[in-house]
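Usage example:
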Amino acid sequence: MSLKIKQDQARFRAIVRGRIRQGLKKYIQHGELLGKKGKDFVTIPIPAIDIPHFRFGERQQGGVGQGEGEPGDPLSPQQGSEDGAGQAGQGEGQHILEVEVTLEELADILGEELELPRIAPRGKDRIVATRVKYTGISPSGPESLRHFKRTYKQALRRQIATGTYNWFRPVVVPVREDRRYRTWKPVAIPDTNAVILYMMDVSGSMGDEQKDVVRTESFWIDTWLRRHYPGLEVRFIVHDAVAREVDRETFFHTRESGGTMISSAYKLCREIIEQDYSGGGWNVYPFHFSDGDNWSTDDTRLCVEILREGILPVVNLFCYGQVDSPYGSGQFIKDLREQLAGTENVALSEIADRDAIYGSIKTFLGKGR
Amino acid sequence: MASRVLPAQLHDMRRQIEAHARGYGLDFWDVVFEVLGFDEMNMVAAYGGFPNRYPHWRFGMEYERLAKGYEYGLSKIYEMVVNNDPSYAYLLESNMDVDQKLVMAHVFGHVDFFKNNFMFQHTNRKMMDQMANHATRVRRYQDRFGVEVVEEFVDRCLSLENLVDYHSPFVKRRASPSAAEDERRVATGFRSGREYMAGYINPPELLAAEQRRLDDEAARERKLPEQPEQDVILFLLEHAPLKPWEHDVLSIIREEAYYFAPQGQTKIMNEGWATYWHSRIMTEKALRPEEVVDYADHHSGTLATQPGQVNPYKLGVELWRDIEERWDRGRFGKEFEECDSLEERRHWDKKLGQGRQKLFEVRRHYNDVTFIDEFLTPEFCSQQRLFGFGYSDKHQRWEIATREFRKVKEKLLHQLTNFGQPLIMVEDGNFENRGELQLLHRHDGVDLKVDYARDTLRHLQSMWHRPVNLATKVEGRGVLMRFDGKDHTDRRLDK
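Running the assembly step on the lines above writes:
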């Protein structure tokens, strides 16, 4: 049986995804994801929309609690934000839950918050991005969509329930309340003609921790993308002073060292795009991760040139993530920022540590770009 | 929602528990128990206990939260009961027998409270039907004017939902109009010494016109509202230029706000009361030996308190027990209060045995505010390890601020007074003689959340159609926040 409330739920989700009622967007609160609770724990964000009221500012109000501790002891983070616990009957507060989940589930959850930005229908087998689909039955709607069978079923049900059904003369007459109508909603069909190119700096200046952060981040991006965009093509490039294409396994497990020539990766990336994904039939998304410590300013200049001439014109979005490293100067992202200012399809993100991974993924794939 | 007849086994249980409850002197309406699967349960809970509400995304949001919580095994709704005559209560299909018993006992406690507590004497006891009517009305408007339009308006109404006078069902605040009538100025027309000329100098129609003008003037001079009006929604309903359907939707929101209000105002008492009774009924009568462990587990789950939060179940039941003990042993009144010997106080026992009687008296005549105000004692406060917390600017974090009885109690009462909502009232419906609306925030030491206040003003303006103003204080200074339909402005008030 489908529940009445599913309609409200669908509507809520549509609002959260920004499909309808954009005005409410600023009231949406997202919880934090990929929490710090060890390996298997994550906090699950349950988006909530907070309708504005006249209410007290929390900080001045404070509250009352029960438990151990001396004056001056800190409360744990959630407690403070609990707005006036237990007073209003329908508790508002923060909607954050903490649970153990599997990778697939997590990818699902991520899916509600992320999307491939700037994706465009491309390619020969171009697919319409949205179409209308009949999804359910509702007690109200236009007469042209009346569901004949369900209406009669409802009438029959009512007649039996009220005892007016005559077994010997089984005439079923629907009244107004029995009428059932088809309902629909627009369904988005993700475009499958897309390719992701991952590039990773594996040079000596990238310490184990930095590589780890990069792998975690690209792993999550990869997990999520593969789940939500089936048929997606993925290519992997690692580079130090020279770049080479590798398979997924190698990409996630290789350990190398050497100097850094970022241009080598970009050259290879450009070649791959030209060879396999040219002609406007593809959505192309290169991701590059590095510690931002390039060999020379000349090379950086070369990188910018390759990006400008060869890569940016043909890709949907170029993402560059830079890990903080104790050795590197971290100059590269600054250079990119300067040189590529005003370019729309570039996303730059600095990743300070593991905790910043989620924020960085959101910078790349967050909605509403 | 499928309505199911209670299975025989549950039916027997219910009769047994009901008999125990009556035996203790609980006095409740007939209760209709329904068994629901978890998704239906979540739905009904999201609807606030009702099977039928008007369509709105907010219920979907609540449902999503409950459903996710249930799926991931974090939370589960055990019990739900609707203040209605007959009362409706829901049992979760998958619960163990011992849980069902516990829930039933708990529910009878709630229904007794609904029926007898004074806060509920003005609530609509046929709210089940009323809610369904509201749903139909809102649906009809959605069919006629469009889903988006109506939903958007409901959002705006909800934003003002707390601007009602929670005490108004009990008080008649409107001054009777007679006083104003007395001072009515009477048109006299021109003075004429000659009576036979009166009809000529002051023709009756001229006099009537003059009278009308005077009356109009008086009406304009009279302040609207005469007294600051806390029921802002009512004021809007009476004076704002709303379309008929908007008027109806706003009145629906207001009616539902008033229906839910007393439940919020007696949360601690009500949950405590129900917990007190399920614990008595279960431990003294209904529990079978093999069920003890499960019962204890679930009972303690209900009372578990997150460090640093107040759990109304826990605080409530402890207070009720404390009251019972104090009145059983006579630990109250002048003699007890003035006793200085700690030793004597600790062993104080007059063997009065008035505990039970006192409980029933308190459950009739108190609400959370008066309950806490009267029965929260310093001993109780330190036994229960209550503390007040606040935000420390120095450390940029939330901290335990105090364990001092007086301050803790003050904070708790502040949280409960007027629902823990700021007191806001309509001061003037014709502010500066420009048809603007002026609201007044009775500042009690805590500022409003400014960004929220601005957005709420925006919604208010969309109903009033003329600029709206709110007089409040920010960081100790008087401020008049204003929204004129386009821009927000702040103006410093004197001082």
